Structure formats: C-alpha cells, structure tokens
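Hi everyone,

Forwarding the result from last night's run.
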Amino acid sequence: MNKTKNKVIILSNKPYLKAFKYGLFVLFLTISFNSVAYNIKIEIENCPKSLIYLGKHKGPDFEVIDSVVANNELVIFNSNKTLEKGVYFIIIPPQTRFDFIIAENQDFTIKTDNRDILNKLEITGEKQYQIFIELQKKIAAINKQRTQLEMELNFFEMYQKDTLSHVKSKIDSLNNAQLKLYSSYKVGLSPNDFLYKILNILEPFNPPDSINKLQYSNPPIHYKYYINHYLDRIDFTEAALLNTPAFVFHKQLEDYCYYFFDIRVNKLNEVYPDIDSLIAKTNNNPKYEQYILSYLISRYEKPTDLRLEGILVYVYRNYFMINKPNWVTQQAYDIMKLRIESIQYNLIGSIGKNLILTDFQGNKSSIYSLNSNYKVLFFWEPDCDICTDALLELNSVYDQLAANDIEVIAINTNNKKKKEWLEFISTHELNWINAFDKDNTTQHATYYGTYKTPRIFVLDKHNKIITKDIKPNYLYNYIMTYENQITTERGMFDFMFGE
C-alpha cells in the first residue's frame, strides 16, 4: 500500500500505514474476539467506484476486516458479529485513508468528501466518536505547521544556523500544544470511555515533584519510581488498547523495554525481576500477556546488541518452556526451542565450554589450556564458501592478533571433510591452531550453536565470552577497545579503593 495523499491518522506526528511484519511476533499473535453485530454506513462524495476497505490497527500491524464496492458514493459494512473496540480505518483507493474509533455503539454513519477527507469528516454515534474526529482536525493543523517548521529547520541548518534556536522553540511550542490537547479533551470524557484511555496513554509521564527532586540526590529511588509507575497510564483491563496504532500502546512497550531493559545490558540479572513485574502488570489478562510475551520474543530474538540474548533465554525458559501457552503453535514452539538450544550455553558474559580437540598432527588441544590473553574460536566447514571467505579474511589479520597475545583456534565441524580441511590449511598456510572433534565427543553444536557456520567466539583469559559472531576484520579493534575499557575500569577501582 502506498502512502496516502489525504491521510487522516489520529493524533500522531508522522502518519503511516505499515504492512504486516512476518516472524514470531505475528506468528504468536492470533487473538480472537467475541461476536455480535455491526452496521457502518459511509457516505463519500466524489468516491471512485472501487473496493473500499475496512481495517483495524494492531500496533505496528493492521488487519483488513472487509471490503465493499462503493455504490453511488455509498458503502455499507455490516455483519452479524460485533467488532472489538479499537481504532479502525477506511481505505479509499488509490491513495486515501482515514481513521475512526469504534466502542460500544456499532451502528453509525460516517460522511466525508474524497476531495477533502478531513475537513468534511463527520460521524454519528457516541460522543467520543465526534471528539475523536474533532481532535484529529486540530492535530492535523498542528502537523501542518510542524512540517513547515521542520522544512525551515533543514534550510536554516545549511544557510542560517543562528535562526535554528528560534525555529526549534516554535516546534517545541507546537509539541506542547499537542500534549495539552490530549489533557483538554479528556475533561469532556468519562474515564470509562475508550478514547479517554487512549488519551491517558498519550499524555506524558509526569512523576510528582517529590520524585523529580531525587533525580540527582537519590537516583536509585528516582529510577525505581519510573520503572514501577511508567506504565500506570495503561488500563490493562482494557484489551482493546491493543487495537490501536503503534504510537499508542506499542510505543509505550517499546520505550519501556529500551529504558528499563536494554540500557541495563551489563546487569541483566537485575533486569529479570523487572521482566516478571512487566508480565505481572497484565493481571493474567490473556490478550495483554500474549502481546507482551510475543513482543519480547520478537525484540530479543535477534537483538542488535547480542548481550541482550540473555533476555530471550530468560523469557523462553520461564514463560514458554515450563508451561507452553495454548496460543503458541507447535511450529512456533519448535522454532523457539531450536533457537534457545543454540544460544543458551554461549551467552555473552557466560563462561565458554571447554573443548578437547585434536589438531591435524593428532595432538590433543584444550581451549582452557591456551594461555593467551584472548582466544578466538572459529567454527567452520571446508565446503562452506562463506566459511572459507571469512577464514581467509581472518588470516589476513592474524599476525596483528598474534602480536597482541590473541590466539586463534579454527575448528572444523565436519569430520567427513578431513581431506579437504587439510588441503585448505596447507594451501593457505594457516598457522594458527587447526583442530577438529575427532571422536565427536565435545558437543560443540550444543555448547557453541554450530548448527550453522561460520561462528566466531572471543574468550578472555578467564574463558568468559566477550563477543561472538563478529566479522574477522573487526576483531582486533573490538578486542583492543574492550581491553582499554577493562584497564580503565581497573584503574578507577585501584584509585578509589587501592592503598
């Protein structure tokens, strides 16, 4: 679906319509709903005679519910089933879309003009339906001004930098005006209204002054308040809040994971209880629990920072392995099981498993027996082109590594290719330790996830895994940076606590 010309997206600064994202997150999200009846009549002036689509937002994704051919500028969507409460949209091909909400009243009329969707938009039904439309119009006006100012900002950035602060202050004023709109419109609504609960989420998080004062005087208490109350704006008894665009509930969940989980990557053991607290906030509401668990699996399945894989293992072990949720398909469960088995013993920060290997001369070689400051384990197969390319790249930087007490042990994972393995070593003069699991006793597939190759692990002198799956040409700089960081931290400790 292309971006639309006359889009009306509720409350957001940057409108969009995203296609479904395929993966475990979507695979897990198969939420069903109760059924009764709806009747939505839509009168659209200057409407093309084409299929008109009714859909529902679901965080970063959406669900198309029905499509009807426009007949004399009239479209009627009806069924003997009710729709879940949520934020819905109408798509008028080729490039137009507008949003509206559905709560209890599901028999109402929408009127608009395809040439001026927003300004002509009217809706009957509950009071909150009209307020939603009115709010959209005001947000659209703010968005228009903000877009103009952002264009000016880009221009002045290049040609008149002394004007930047003035333009930025105008943008800040617009942002504040938008936030005030949320609060002002809440006043005219009941706390039980669906729109009220949406606006409650969109309002900024404002701790009491007594807590704000602790930011510098008592940071732990300040932080603890944030983590305990940041999601208080969300009514976890209202599952329909999951049927909203990404910037409503989904954005709060994203921010929560980033600020309270991701940036504490060096202290994941302290994060795990907070993951439990997040799940507990759902109060066993199955839809929220499913959504949050699915999101956590999706977010940490392939994190940009591999240290966060520990969260994936924790969530899987505690919320899937012990008791498989009934909404998880066997296919999804099997995928996750294979994924966890490949990483649970080689998480960054954990101690790598010792392997007793045999070199090409028949000598036994133990990973733990290597006395180098750092050890690079390279698992590969002779008939894997990606492996051999990476191996040659590693060989090009080996002298630099060896000169800094960094040893390489290249491990052939395919015993059936011994001849090809030896020929490759000889042809390319690979002078590091070349070894293989002669008797298939090391279980390297279990402990280092060598179901796939190539795989690279870097261990320090205490055999702690400091990184993995790094490109060979990045190895030296990464290890040197890590070493400098450790040296600095050690120096600070000696300065503060040494004699």
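The longest helix spans residues 127-159.

Cheers,
N.
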